[in-house]
Amino acid sequence: MATSGGTPDVPSWQRGRVAGWLVTVDHKRIGLLYIATAGVFFAISGFLALLIRTQLAQADQSIVTGTSYNESVTMHGTGMVFFVVVPILAGLGNFLVPLMIGARDMAFPRLNALSYWLYLFAGLVFCLSFFAKGGAANTGWTAYPPLSLQSPGNGQDLWILSLHILTLSSLAGVINFVVTIQHMRTAGMSWTRMPLFVWSIYVYAWLLLLVLPALSAGLTALLLERQFPGTFHFFEPSGGGSPVLYQHVFWFFGHPEVYVMILPAMGIVSEILPVFSRKPIFGYKAIAFSSVAIGFFSLLVWAHHMFTVGLSTPLNIWFMLVSMVIAVPTGMKVFNWLATLWRGNLSFDTPMLFAVAFLSVFVFGGLTGIYLAAFPVDWQLHDTYFVVGHFHYVLFGGAVFAILGGLVYWWPKLYGRLLDERITKPAFWLTFVGFNLTFFPQHLAGMLGMPRRIFTYYDTGLLQAYNLASTIGSFTMGVGMLVFLAAIVKSLNGRRAGNDPWLADTLEWYTTSPPPPHNFDSVPYVTSARPLHDLRRTLKDSGAL
Amino acid sequence: MTPLVRSKLLATVAAALAALAFAVPALAGNGGFAPVPPASPNAEGITQSYWFITAFILGIFVLVEALLIVFLIRFRRRRRHRHADGAQIHGSSRLETMWTIGPVLILFAIAVFVFAKLPGIKDVPAASAGQPNLVVKVTGRQYYWQFEYPNGVIAIDELRAPVGGVVQLDVTAPPFDVIHSWWIPALGGKIDAIPGRLNHTWFKADRAGVFSGQCAELCGLNHARMLARVEAMPQATFDAWLAERQAQQEAGTSPLGREAYDGVCAKCHGLAGEGNVAVNAPQLQGSSLVSDAAGIERLLRNGQNLMPAVGRDWSDTQMRAMTDYLKERFASGN
Fold first, then answer.
1. Containing structural domain, residue B241
2. Angle at the Cα of A515 (from A512 to A520), degrees rounded to 5?
3. Is residue B125 part of a domain?
4. Contact status of B38 with chain A (Cβ, < 8 Å)
5. What is the pLDDT of residue B332?
6. If contacts are CB pairs under 8 Å, which of residues 144-183 in chain B contact chain A?
7. Domain covering A24-194, topology
8. B233 and B293 share one domain
9. Residue B105 and residue A435: Cα distance in Å, rounded?
10. Which chain A residues are Cβ-neighbours of B115 within 8 angstroms?
11. How many Cβ atoms are within 10 Å of A410's Cβ, its own excluded?
């Protein structure tokens, strides 16, 4: 790879502190913009979650109205899925993928910038929904018709519009990832020497590429039918449409979307565990290929979200069996991660704490999924708080824990300074304890008969006790997140990190922290999945180290 | 093993067994650790499947968490240098094959058990000559349940059924309404009430009592108040009730008006007509509209602002029951 000496030719109007960020096409800056913007949406969506928990703390409360509650639920869910988890992974991917594969930038830097600015624009339209006539969208993140067709005002339309824009942003972004990963790996980095996080982003990108068009189609139909109700009848049964059709289209997108959120999280954990165990990952190929297998099977299971719709029994059986098949590659990952710890030299820095916490709670979230895959059992559990508990174990305990761990792990590379362990560790424990206190009781509330998305309930016994515990837990997590934020603020003048503070094995640690605009002056020839480990050994053998 | 160690060990095992002996009934009595205690064969089949799956899941969960904790303690750094290498093990095809095949076998066992239970959960038991199945049409509407019996009797929110009799439910929603989901946990799983689609489920209450449940699919601002009850009563009592209710309905003296008020109106306007139970729902107590039968009918058939068209497809009998009740209840101002 050519090294670039001297200062790049930048026009003067682009050199200002703000202007530099506005016109940047540097993948690292775009990655940071993604992460910061997603952080803001995390705060908004998290605030809505606390509002929800406050309303449900006690039976028969009226802190918010039924409509406001439905708006909170809808905007919380949509915000977390579309504007927090997926984009923050895009941000980490943006920053890290070129560094991890020894490339100078993404394949299409300008397309990369476009995809970020479209994301921000989509986010602003999404927020406008709060100020729309008739209030924000209030039909759940799934927006099932006919409810979403009848929802008054423009909140639902702005919601649709924002997701349309976001879809364009994501498509541009994932094409960039696919091309970058396929064509820009440095010399020697074959597919089986690629870091596991890059593998997971590769599958993430393909999944989005395959399923986002379905979401766009469904949303377009919904928008047309809302705007021209006499002309279009895709979903409205009185005009000959089918509300179930929308569910098929939505979940064809929606289920792979879950793996879009969890696979890169698994990738992050697969990077962290070996470094803090001082071992190679156990079964590299099994972990890489299980990501591909999970991605493939996730395209075939969508109707397990529709077991109560009244599909035919053969269809239900198909979707149950394929959903169960996903448990096999997932279980393989779990056992491989465990085996990675075996006979290691384990250090419990904050990234490792988050990775181990991920492992311990993700197992629970994965196992409770088996109840939901067995469709007769799902007939009891579907659309209850059991499901809410289950998917928060996967998406908060899974995805968000891994992302937080990843942020602590890569913060020195992102920003050049370490986060203070004395702050991130309390943040971790508050989050971990609060998380379990919030979401474990929700499984029990669901089995007592509490459906999801209800703005109040009337049982003052055990159900209220579980809900109160859940509310206390959610505020504990909220405090944990504030402490985490404090660590980030404090790192502004924190301890400087060297190139490789964790003595890690992948290429991003070969360059400076933060890396220069051109990333690398030189990239070593990659001889395995652990190029820096090889390099250290070579240096040691030659007596230089 | 010294006697002391042995007695300690025995005490530990005994304590564990005692704890287990207490835990099992505590779990069976459930507290949310299993679905609501079943009162119908289909719910029973689901609960059995739940426990079968739980046996495996609990085993795997304990195994993974125990290994995790043991590894974290056993292989922690202690006095080693933080950069000292752990064992450089890259994998083991034999182990990986084992933990691929193991889950496959477990999932296979779960699938076989669930499929064996499926007919008992899904299939409506055939009607016997002596006792035909009772077929009730259930429609979910914003925000109440309407039940129609074969003899034309209409009831709101509370379904009455004979103990030991098979009740077959035809579940749907009117074409102008939204999706709801019928769910009485003790009497089986849920089934969606979808406009333009007819779904079927059933139950056979094995004891008398009131079983409650509620709509399980977000259906709008009052979704949380869309409650449902099933009251199971002896066959003779049920038959008498159904016949009496039919006679009353034909004579215009049935409690349908009150039931409809409580189920359809009160969830927003209040049981005493005080208004504002849901935001901006006007007070009915003392309102001039309540004695205007035509005005009320227009309102119920078309809806207004946030109020759905709750009575768009009501029969004249049903509409009259409603308007009569409103007039009688509120026009005098009490």
1. 134-251
2. 85
3. no
4. no
5. 67
6. 175-179, 181, 183
7. Cytochrome C Oxidase; Chain A (1.20.210)
8. no
9. 32
10. 317
11. 26
CA distance B135 to chain A (A): 18
Rounded to 5 degrees, φ, ψ at B229 are -135, 145
- Answer whether A298's CB lies under 8 Å from A255's CB: yes
**pLDDT 10s digits, A317-351:** 999 999 999 999 999 999 999 999 999 999 999 99
Which residues of B, range 248-287, sit inside 8 Å of A by Cβ? 278-279
The position carrying tokens 């074969």 is: B150
* pLDDT for res B290: 85
Query: What 3-state class would DSSP assign to A221?
Result: helix
| Cα–Cα distance, B13 to A494 (Å, whole number) | 52
Contact A380/B185 with Cβ under 8 angstroms?
yes
Q: The complex's ipTM? A: 0.93
B211 and B265: one domain?
Answer: no
Judge whether A76 counts as a catalytic residue: yes
Q: Do the beta carbons of residue A388 and residue A446 sit within 8 Å?
A: yes
DSSP B107-155: HHHHHHHHHHHHHHHHSPPPPPSSSPPEEEEEEEETTEEEEE-TTS-EE
A373 in Cβ contact with B111 (< 8 Å): no
Q: Give the H or E element holding residue A434.
A: helix A421-447
Of the residues B199, B220, B251, the one at which a domain ends: B251
pLDDT tens readout for residues B272-291: 888 888 878 888 888 888 88
B55 touches A at CB < 8 Å: no
The Cα of B14 is separated from the nearest Cα of chain A by a number of Å equal to: 29
Task: Answer yes or no: are the C-beta atoms of B197 and B138 closer than 8 Å.
Answer: no
Closest chain B C-alpha to A478 CA, distance in angstroms: 26
Residues paired with B159 in a beta bridge: B230
Each residue of B123-154: pLDDT tens digit?
Answer: 999 887 777 899 999 999 999 999 999 999 99
In the DSSP assignment, the letter for residue B272 is T
Tell me whether residues A368 and B100 touch, CB distance under 8 A.
Answer: no
Q: What confidence category does residue A5 fall into, taking pLDDT thresholds of 50, 70 and 90?
A: very low
Nearest CB to A343: which of B89, B194, B218?
Answer: B89
Average pLDDT over all residues of chain B = 90
Confidence band of B334 (pLDDT split at 50, 70, 90): very low
| Local confidence band at A18 (pLDDT 50, 70, 90 cut-offs) | confident
The tokens for A396 are: 């908060």
Residue A372: per-residue pLDDT: 97
Q: Which of A61, A372, A377, A533 to mutate to test the interface with B (most CBs of B within 10 A)?
A: A377
Residues B322-327, mean pLDDT to the nearest whole number: 90
Query: How far does CA A429 lie from the centroid of its chain?
Result: 21
Q: Comparing C-alpha atoms, which of A412, A428, A420, A410 is closest to residue A481? A: A428
Q: How far does chain A reach from its first CA to its final CA, in angstroms?
A: 26
A164 counts as catalytic: no
Of the given ranges (A296-300, A389-393, B42-46, B264-268), which has the lowest mean pLDDT? B264-268
Nearest CB neighbour to A70, from listed B49, B111, B221: B221
Q: Nearest CA of chain A to the CA of B205: how many Å?
A: 17
Residue B45 lies in a domain: yes
- Does residue B114 belong to the interface with chain A, where contact is any CB pair within 8 Å? yes
